């Protein structure tokens, strides 16, 4: 991630054939698909195929399942004045326990 006053930009890259899930987003923010083709599923939109270049907005509470048909570069932009990456992640990512990976909550 790169931080500048008021904004942090973070790249995500996937090789073609990759299936991934995102973390749950806390804030609305912009993103750009810089290169590649991917299918993105959210409970709000269902499955959508996106071809670069593409600009979108992520809403709070969004979690995605992504399948990269080709190599993909996805860039996010988060509003923050923070420069500490741990603090930034605490601001932009919702706390979540995956009971399949971490066991059931106490």
N- to C-terminal separation? 33 Å
Q: List low-pLDDT spans.
A: none
Annotation field: number of helices: 2
CATH class descriptor: Mainly Beta
Structure, explained:
With 106 residues, the protein is mainly β. The protein has a single domain (2-96), classed as Jelly Rolls. It has two helices and nine strands. It has helices spanning 85-92, 99-102, and strands spanning 2-4, 7-14, 19-21, 29-35, 37-42, 46-51, 54-58, 65-68, 72-78. A five-stranded antiparallel sheet has the order 1-2-9-4-7, with no helix packed on it. A hairpin with a 2-residue loop joins strand 1 (2-4) and strand 2 (7-14). It is globular, with a radius of gyration of 14 Å.
Summarize the SSE layout with pairings:
Blueprint: E1 2-4, E2 7-14, E3 19-21, E4 29-35, E5 37-42, E6 46-51, E7 54-58, E8 65-68, E9 72-78, H1 85-92, H2 99-102
Antiparallel strand pairs: 1-2, 2-9, 3-8, 4-7, 4-9, 5-6, 5-8
Q: What can be said about this structure in brief?
A:
This protein has a single domain (2-96), classed as Sandwich (Jelly Rolls), CATH 2.60.120.
Keywords:
mainly beta, 2 helices, Jelly Rolls, five-stranded antiparallel β-sheet, 9 strands, single chain, four-stranded antiparallel β-sheet, globular, 106 residues
């Amino acid at each position: 991630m790169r931080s500048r006053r008021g904004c942090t930009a973070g790249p995500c890259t996937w090789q073609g054939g990759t299936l991934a899930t995102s973390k749950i987003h806390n804030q609305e923010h912009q993103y750009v698909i810089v290169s590649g083709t991917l299918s993105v599923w959210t409970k709000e939109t269902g499955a959508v195929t996106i071809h670069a270049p593409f600009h979108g907005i992520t809403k709070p509470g969004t979690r995605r399942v992504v399948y990269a048909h080709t190599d993909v570069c996805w860039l996010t932009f988060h509003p923050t004045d923070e420069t500490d990456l741990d603090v930034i992640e605490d601001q932009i990512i919702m706390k979540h326990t995956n009971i399949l990976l971490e066991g059931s909550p106490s």
